[in-house]
Amino acid sequence: MALTARRLVQLYAGLALYGLGIALQVSSRLGNDPWDVFHQGLARRFGLSIGAWIIIAGAVVMLAWIPLRQRPGLGTISNVLLVGAFADLFLWLLPSPDAPAARWAFLLLGVLAGGFATGCYIGAGLGPGPRDGLMTGLAARGHSIRVVRTGIELSVLAAGWLLGGTVGVGTILYAVAIGPLSHVFLPALQIKPPEPATA
Predict the structure, then answer these.
(1) N or C end: fewer C-beta atoms under 10 angstroms in the chain?
(2) Is 111 inside any structural domain?
(3) Could you tell me what percent of the chain has a pLDDT over 90?
């Protein structure tokens, strides 16, 4: 019971922190991560909020799981429903800084929060996010996960840029930093089942 409670706390804390990371990076106006370039582009072109498009895109991506025979978990459904809601909440709460130092602080904190949050919600072991599951599902069909991830992210980045999403130094920083940050935080935050007692 205690282990389940810890998993749930870590999952939902991670999803909230992920939404905060998105809001910080968007508010910096120095460049979003590839998926949020896409979400922001959709918001600017068609209306609705960035968070609403995060939810819609996550639900659409989950439909692609069906032919890939991926099975969602509680963490997957929670990711689809809550990351966008938290992103909108924090975008509403956060100021929009003008000073360059403050904008850079928002950007760096946003990228760091994204890496830590990824470790939290994946480490909880309750199911991957919809975009992560799409990548692992395609990789399971015999494709390199590096090639699959790069292809997907370049595609949404290009589409988002054409729609008017913000591309900049933050986009590059996120792309360079998220792998190493996840490499550090995932093992540190992985919740492992208790070892069986020995006689």
Answers:
(1) C
(2) yes
(3) 58
